[in-house]
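Batch job 17 of 40 flagged for manual review because the log was empty.
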Amino acid sequence: MTKRLNNTRQKMAEMDLEAVLITHPPNIFYLSGFSGSSGYLLLTDREALLYTDFRYIEQAAVEAPFFEIIQVKSAVDYAQLATFVSRDRSGKIGLEEAHLTLRAYRLLQKEIPGIELLPLNNFIEEVRAVKEESEVKLIARAAQIADEAWRDLWPRLKPGISEREVSDELEFQMRKRGAERLAFETIVASGERSALPHGVAGSKIIEAGELITVDFGAVFNGYHSDMTRTFLFGEPTAKQSEIYTLVLTAQEMVLQSIRAGQKCADVDAMVRQYFQQEGYGAYFGHGLGHGVGLEIHELPTLAPSGQGVLQERMVFTVEPGLYIPEWGGVRIEDSVVLDSTGAQILTKSEKRLVYG
């Protein structure tokens, strides 16, 4: 925590900020260790303050020993914060613009007149993007839980079960192995529904010969994993084999060539150009990947709009996909950590088109 606070304060100094207000729960947890659902942090060059309500005072004292704990009435009670700020500060306070409601912003303006409230974008998220070794281990454990659950489940899968049965069984198997919760609502999309990138599990019955996309992950000690496998029961058609091979080839191309120092947008463009030259460019509509950690979607962003370059110890997904309306789709996704030699795959379940 000391290292994280020092890194944040260095960034504050570079931006000439007297203080930063942290309101996004994953960022609160990252900097303080506090896991309660109500609270906020105020950081200065010397002070580290955690404001929370009566329900969490004792918990905060245990989880956030590097912070002074201050009791407030609610997560938008800024009266005590205002007293502290107005005491000896007159400069700029940074705010997480993506994680502060308009109501909260107006309350701050009212409570702290004369202080410049500076909106910040990805202020802590940029620090979080490069993982510590302990974080990588927790993500790897979350990935292992998902792998083990999948390996236990797939031999028992068969035509005639519903998408929701697959989803429910996966959740049970992950929780049995230590997952504290799902990383996100499990996606199970079969037949034509597999063309829906986020087709969450429904009541549809899975039939032999149709593509089935399963996208799932576990959370362990706050850290997420993410993986996708696409498969079918029975013999694939020529087109099913073609699309699956294209997606798998695209993923392997990235996994073998990706290195620290590459621009995020350039890595995405590699796959986009490959699909374009194969005649399927119009069917790849999302980004190639996203960071994974305390949130299921975080920096870095591998997409046409992705900013910055990849660095060692970044953890992210590589998930090319092709989605053809009224036919179906294929996505293959792994979570990886980047080191000096390239991408090390954390989600290790085998990839094959035909099961059963």
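Reviewer: the log was empty due to a logging misconfiguration, but the result itself is present. The radius of gyration is 23 Å. Unflagging and moving on to job 18.
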